[in-house]
Amino acid sequence: MAEQSSDALGTVEQALGALLEDVSPLESETLPLAQAGGRVLAGDQMARLDVPAFDNSAMDGYALRAADAGQWLPVSQRVAAGSAPEPLEPGTCARLFTGAPVPSGADCVVMQERVEREGERARFPAELTAGDSIRRRGRDVASGSVLLAAGTWLDAAALGHLAGQGVVEVEVRRRPRVALLSTGDEVIDPGTPLGPGQLYNTNRPMLTRLLESFGAEVGRCVSVPDDFDETRAILGEVAFDADVVISTGGVSVGEEDHVKHALESLGRLDLWRLAIRPGKPLALGRLPARHGDTRFIGLPGNPVSSFVGAWLFLRPLMGALSGCPTLDALPAITATADFATRTGPRSHYMRAALAFTPEGPVATAFADQNSGVLSSCVGADVLVVVPANTAVAKGDAVTCLWIKGG
Q1: Domain span at 341
Q2: Which cofactor does it need (predicted)?
Q3: Which of 31, 101, 129, 319 has the most CB atoms around it within 10 Å of its CB?
Q4: Count of structural domains, the chain
C-alpha cells in the first residue's frame, strides 16, 4: 500500500482498507457445543434431521378429519407428547396435547376451547380446514439443507438450533489473539495510589471488554513506559505470537510519543492520523511475527477516542480474522436530530442516546463531546455520523451507527 503523506489526514474508508488488506480468517478448531457460544462457524453446518421430526399439534385440543366438521365424534384415543399414536379410525377423533404426534388419518387439530365435550364424545365447529393447527414435518428445517452458514456468530438462538439437531461439537474459528498495550508513565492500574500527575488506566478494561464482545481473546496486557528503546522492544516481543497488537496513547506528535517511530523502525506504517473527531491520532501498520506480519493499531490515549476507534476499526478487524461478515459494519439507523451542530474539516462521530418514538427514532447527543469525557459513552446507544463541513439543525435526519451491547 502506498505510504500516506505526512501532512495528509486519512479517511475512515482508507483506514479500513489499510487495516483489512490481505486479512484472511484464522484456522479452525473443534469445540464442544457447550463451549462454542460467541464463536464463529468455520464451515456450513448441514441439517441432519427434519424439524419438526413429525407432524405435531400446535396446541392442546383434538385431531380429526376436516370432513367430519360439525359432528359428534367418539374420542378413540388420547395422545400425549412423546407417545406414538395409533392411526385414527374413520369417524372418530383423538384427544391430544401440544407437541404430540398427529395420528395418521387426521388432517386438522381443533383447540379444546372450541370443542364441546360430553363423556367420551366431542362435537366440533361446523367449518374446519385441513392443516389447521398442525406443525408439519420439516416446516422449520429440512434434512440435508444448510442449517447455519459458515461465518455465523453462535449466539443463543444458533446454539439452540444446533442442539435441536443433536450436535455435540462444532468446528469454529480460533479467537484472534490480541496484545493490549498502554503507554505513558502517568497511566497506572487501579488499586495503586495516585501520584502527582497520574491517572488510572480506563482504556485497558474498556477495550478488553469490547474486544471480547467482538470475539477476540486478550492475552497480554502490558504497560509501556515513555522510552523509545523500551517501546520498540515491547512491540517486537508481543507481536511475535499475537494476531493483533493494539496500543493506546503514544501516537501523536509529542516528544514522549514513541509508538509511531518504534513501529516504523520494526515494521511498516500504513496510515497515520485521520480526518475524524474524536480519534485523529491513529497509527495502522504491520509488525514482524512468527508467521508473517501482525496487524498493529495504535489508538489515541483519550478514552473516548479509543472507545470510538474500537467500534470503527477493532470490530471489523476481529470480524475479518474470525470470518464473521456481520461484524464488517455497524448497523446504521436514520434518526431525527434533537440537537444542532456544525463540523469543520473532520467528520464527527457524536455519542448520542436513541429514543424510539411513534414518529420514529430520535437521537439526543450528549452535551459535552470532548474526547476526554467518557461519561458520554456510558449512556450512548449510537454514534451520530456528521460529515466534514456540515451543519445539522434540530429536526434534521442524521445517520446513526448502533453500538449498544459491547
Answers
A1: 332-402
A2: Mg(2+)
A3: 319
A4: 4
